[in-house]
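Recap for those who missed Tuesday's class. We walked through two folding examples back to back. For each one, the amino acid string is listed first and its predicted structure tokens come directly after. Nothing is annotated here on purpose, so try labeling regions yourself before you check the end of the notes.
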Amino acid sequence: QVQLVESGGGLVQPGGSLRLSCAASRTIFRTIAMGWYRQAPGKQRELVATSSSGGTTNYVDSVKGRFTISRDNAKNTLYLQMNSLKPDDTAVYYCNAQTNLLPWGQGTQVTVSS
């Protein structure tokens, strides 16, 4: 069973940056499209960025130009670089497969506030 462990969240002021990491326990990570999801209080979980196994990326409009998803297949690790953060980015962030979801990790809390 694949385990996903997210880290790197925290409290940051508007305009600040954070880099999230997601470590997968098995090499299956290398062959599947992965994504970063987020869930804000009272809202549904949404997919905000994806990376194919070959590194092709896509973003929802709300984060385009501010977030960058990347992956290191040798380390089974997915990253999300978040710049120019806004209060609306406050959420718990999770990584998972883009389709055929794996068991969810615990997520990492990102809070953007002054």
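Example two. Treat it independently of the first, because the proteins are unrelated.
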Amino acid sequence: QVQLVESGGGLVQPGGSLRLSCAASGSISNILRMGWYRQVPGKQRELVAGITNVGITDYARSVKGRFTISRDNAKNTMYLQMNSLKPEDTAVYFCNKAYGSSWPWGQGTQVTVSS
């Protein structure tokens, strides 16, 4: 089973930026679509950004124009550049496949947007 390790989270002020990384223990090059998800306590995990194996991206309405997803298949790594962060972006962020059955979920990385 592929293991996923998310990193790059932290505490940032509103309007700030963070870059999240997702390292996979196995190849992601053949994975049709990968995604970044986020979850807050008491709510379901939601997909905020997806990227296909040829680089086509899509975003949730709440983050469109502020977040940018990218992937480096050669490094088995995916990224999420988050700009103009808002308090409502506070969540634990996870990466995983965004189509078909998921790999085991990693621990995620906490993003807290607060002044």
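Answers for example two:
The mean pLDDT is 96.
The beta strands are 4-7, 10-12, 18-24, 33-39, 46-52, 57-59, 67-72, 77-82, 91-97, 109-113.
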